[in-house]
Amino acid sequence: MGNPSQTAGGLESIPALLQRNAREFGSKAAYREKEFGIWQCWTWAETEKEVEALALGLINLGVNEGDFIAIIGRNRPHFYWSMVAAQSVGAIPVPLYQDSAAEEMAYVLEHCGARFAIVEDQEQVDKVIDVQERLHQFEHMIYIDPRGLRKYDHRALHEFAKVQEQGRAARDEFIQELKDRREKPKFDDQCVMLYTSGTTGKPKGVVLSNRNIIRSAQNASEFDNLGPGDEVLAYLPMAWVGDFIFSIGQAYWTGFCVNCPESPETMMIDLREIGPTYYFAPPRVFETQLTNVMIRMEDAGTLKRALFHHFMDFARTGAGEKYGMPKRSLAKPDLKRRVKQAWKFSMGVGFALEALLENAIRLFFVKLRHPIDTRDHFKARDPLGLYLYPEPVRSYFKYRMGEVLVYGPLKNTLGLSRVRVGYTAGEAIGPEIFDFYRSLGINLKQLYGQTEASVFITVQPDGEVRADTVGVPAPEVEIKITDEGRIFYRSPGTFVEYYKNPESTADTKDAEGWVDTGDAGFFEEGTGHLRIIDRAKDVGKMADGAMFAPKYVENKLKFYPDILEAVMFGNGRDHCVAFINIDLTAVGNWAERNNIGYSSYQELAGHPRVLATIQEHVEAVNRSVAEDPMLSGCQIHRFVVLHKELDADDGEMTRTRKVRRAFVADKFNDIVEALYDGSETVSTVTEVTYEDGRKGTIKATLEIRDAKVVPVEPQKVAAE
Amino acid sequence: MSVMDQETYVTADGRTIGGVLMEMRNISLRFGGVKAITDISFDIREGEIRAIIGPNGAGKSSMLNVISGFYIPQEGEVWYKGAVRPQMRPFEVARQGIARTFQNIALFEGMSVLDNVMTGRLNHMTMGLLSQAIWKGKAEQEEIENREVAEKIIDFLEIQHIRKTPVSRLPYGLKKRVELARALAAQPSLLLLDEPMAGMNVEEKEDMSRFILDVNDEFGTTIALIEHDMGVVMDLSDRVVVMDYGKKIGDGSPDEVRNNQAVIDAYLGVAHD
After folding, report:
1. Strands A68-72 and A92-96
2. What is this model's ipTM?
3. Using alpha carbons only, what angle is made at residue A560 by residues A543 and A294, rounded to the nearest 5 degrees?
4. In angstroms, what CA-CA distances link B191 with A299, B120, B135, B254?
5. Which of B155, B161, B217 is the closest to A148 by Cβ?
6. Measured between beta carbons, which residues in chain A are less than 8 angstroms from residue B13?
7. A628 Cβ neighbours under 8 A, 6+ residues apart
8. What percent of chain A has pLDDT over 90?
């Protein structure tokens, strides 16, 4: 490692890796997709055949080298094949977010000048047809699901299976051409183009080369010791760089199996069935899962709830970190490992019985000594403790017990039992949420990355995981931090350019290859871990000069299951205010249990008891924020519970579900003003866009609440 | 004159509608002294979506029950596939290839969605109770074949995520969809839908309309439906029968019906004397 001119053993493109995998792991599963209730499987050898047939079909349709092929749909093996087939014929795949509106698609299709699109179903076909007139170069569309498309004009519309069929039929004619084209791509040729989600402004097309993808995938796979036995579940948007790196880059490099869910709604069920060993999710997914667990525990019986809380409290004290982490280095356990697991499990069962016995004896003696107030004396100590053993043996035994009773079943329900390496990225995850998963014994780690870096900038090595840092520089990544705290990096994954946008390229990447992340951070002394403060442009100063770091406080708020999203304002002002989105699942469940009737999100969000609960949360967060002298200025003085969920269709979030802060501030300007001018209520009219692009408006009168803040001594701010 | 008189006709979206599948000839139905249906005749052709509409109490549901063979009309004949249909018991009707959904959902609440859909396949299973219990050889084979059909329909109606969920835990809109799935699982030649969109919100209605159109398009199923929502009916159906007070007051394509004075009167309310 470390030699930038080194190629990956002659494997200079994804199609070349596919050829190798078909040779070496021919009979091993490469893709699975659940269809008609059964997991359908394709081996690497079969995958190679499918990709070849499609590539021949594409040549047959007239795809030229250097063409862009748009890929629009949810994660399906067909789309992964399409991308590789496109690369095999010398074209460049451009995956798009399948839930974007026709308008957003038009921009991207026009910008890259795609001649071909491979789309999923009627919905996507309709969207592209809607904007087709504005796309001069656009020619053919290939769809996978023929349902509802029979009556469409089929001159420029082809079915995926038919294209493959024609490709197979024309094999003799085109195979030589395909081979020629497949050999051509070199390490520095274009591999894929991915559009940024665009927290600000129009999306930019990030051009990534084979070197970027393959080297990054290789380094990361070696870092985490991934092998052909691993399993992943591909459910994140295909247009996102992470999915490309994990489901194509690393999958092709190491030869592991990519599993595609049956439909977006069945993702949690499929996750359980597959039990991935390598798992990746943005914080949002972990938050939702945690919320669901908490809701279900609220509904559970007293004994189960007591057990859950008892063992979770115990695991959070650090026992999970110490005794729970999976130690195996291989995805598939060998016999020795299996015996060990069985032994551990029986130990758990044994110690659970032992604890019962021990406590029965203890109760007997307590009764002898305190005949009248037995219960109080007994309760005063841990009823599930094992008192015969000294620490740390006791904690170890207790954790084993918890593994059998709580952690194991819970991990199984979440579908995370087999996870060996799990990552969260994209946004900062709330420390409480992070600790919850870690203490269950799931090796969840954080990484810090960008599309422009082919994901990896820093990662957390096993055993050095903390909630507040993002880890050490990934292999072959160099990082420098300027005096103002801005983070720059340089790595083999550094992108080639922004397509048709040399000014932005020059702004972001300098001649030596250093790329500006736009984030602010610093290296922690002693450990060498990078800490991200915030998006550099989000971190601000309040009127009195105190630091304003919205993400930090928002994450604290989002730990409460009731709160789905929070947006804080306060840059340049004398105090902070916040917008809050309630979580309909959690609050709806609470309302049901408390006999509170509601007919809509808006009504529930405005319910006085909901507001009171949220107020308690805000005040609790204020207390916790006040403890940090640096950030005590960020306490929330006033807040409002919004009448609608922030949504990507309305432009308030990106398609990867990050809040577009400036956009929100602008759109709800009237509410922000009302929060600052001291009024009790605010009436507002909001425009909403439905999924199919139609628009409507919501009128609402929102109640503004004051939250108690902890008074703090005026800060001595570092000399400014 | 209108589409009514031709052997076959082509719809606005280019489907060719075939010959007569079912014909009502001068049907009258009474409950004691109450005349529910008075002398109604119309036909349902192969491959079309036929709607029966009318204000409350017009006799629509009675009409559907006559079509499904549940009510026996006092007068008139029901012709099905070119022959007069004799009086039949409900399961015989089902065997003839008629399936229906109900206005107030009639699913097996305690069973999972998949099991409910599988009940729709019962008429296609021939093995006896004993061999199904032992579940070896042919019985297993048969179950697998039928499960495949059921799974295709589950996929078609996009209810994969609730496959194993007990029906009692589902919201109303999904229950309706499950009911449609069960009816479709029987692979009927005539599908009767009793107010498929009653009590749904706009989004659910749109989804349901989409599914009805897709069912008709993909499987070529003939569909007869009763519906309250005029807008939906006019968009969905190829031909519409309008009933009021047990009588037929209009019949024809949605446009013809929309401009029919009697229909307008019935809906907007004109004093009946």
Report:
1. parallel
2. 0.80
3. 170
4. 41, 13, 31, 20
5. B217
6. 151
7. none
8. 33
